[in-house]
Amino acid sequence: MTKLRSNLLVVAEDGGTPLERATHALPDIEWAAVLPTIEAINALKVERNAIVLAHNYMTPDIYHGVADIVGDSLGLAREAARTDAEVIVFAGVHFMAETAKITCPDKTVLIPDPNAGCSLAESITGVDVRLLRERFPGVPIVAYVNTSADVKAEVDICCTSGNAVEVVRSLGADEIVFLPDQYLGKWVASQLPEVKVHLWEGACMVHERFTGEELRSYRTQTPGVQILAHPECPPDVLAEADYVGSTAGMVGFVRNVAPGNRVVMVTECSMADNIALEAPGVEFVRPCNLCPHMKKITLDKILHSLRTMTTEVHVDADIAERARRSVDRMLAIGTSAAAPAGGTR
Ligand code: 13P
Ligand code: SF4
Question: Using CA atoms, how far apart are residues 73 and 141, in angstroms rounded to an integer?
Answer without folding.
Answer: 20
